[in-house]
Design brief:
Blueprint (H helix, E strand, L loop, with lengths): L1 H12 L1 H4 L2 H21 L2 H4 L5 E5 L16 E6 L3 E2 L4 E3 L4 E9 L6 E8 L2 E9 L4 E9 L4 E6 L14 E6 L2
Antiparallel strand pairs: 1-2, 1-10, 3-4, 4-9, 5-8, 5-10, 6-7, 6-9
Length: 174
């Protein structure tokens, strides 16, 4: 019965007409995860915990090496456990759209240059200037297993401010 109601809702919203088969399957998977969470916990708010999400910060100042992956070691949120503080890498648990954000702040140096990368490919650039943060927000189409991280670019001698001024976060949209 729930499946019939679900399919009717999808058709009424027009999603079936606009989606491809794989997208429908992903949407159904998301709804099933939410339904399981509601059944288990008794409220829709609990279902939101099924959405992969993370927020991490840098607690100590850092002088990153050229091309170094930044390991944001202070984990504030890590729903699903898909961010690794030991590697600095978020691994996408499933296909879909993700909102990825990063903020960097130089410490003492004039500039700080970093990149948001997926599987070693630059997606967005960040630059912070003395006393000012650099921020990037990107909606990325990721595949299950894609590795997302913040990497120092090719410039050396730049310092990154810790004390939670520099951060990296992301969450699954759809």
């Amino acid at each position: 019965m729930k499946f019939v109601v679900l399919m009717t809702s999808l058709v009424c919203c027009g999603n079936v007409v606009l989606c491809h088969e794989k997208e429908i399957i992903e949407d159904l998977l998301n709804v099933i995860i939410k339904l399981k969470a509601v059944k288990k916990n008794g409220s829709y708010g609990a279902a939101r915990l099924a959405v992969p999400a993370f927020t991490v910060t840098l607690s100590k100042h850092l002088t990153p090496q050229v091309n170094q992956i930044i390991k944001f070691e202070s984990v504030k949120t890590n729903i699903g456990g898909h961010y690794s503080a030991s590697t600095g890498i978020f691994t996408a648990p499933r296909n879909g759209l993700y909102m990825i954000s990063a903020t960097i702040r130089p410490n003492g140096s004039s500039y700080l240059h970093c990149e948001i990368q997926v599987n070693g490919e630059m997606k967005e650039k960040l630059v912070g200037t003395r006393g000012s943060t650099g921020t990037a927000n990107a909606v990325l189409q990721l595949k299950k297993g894609n590795k997302v991280f913040i990497k120092k670019d090719h410039r050396g001698g730049e310092n990154m401010m810790g004390k939670d001024w520099s951060m990296f976060s992301g969450y699954f949209i759809a």
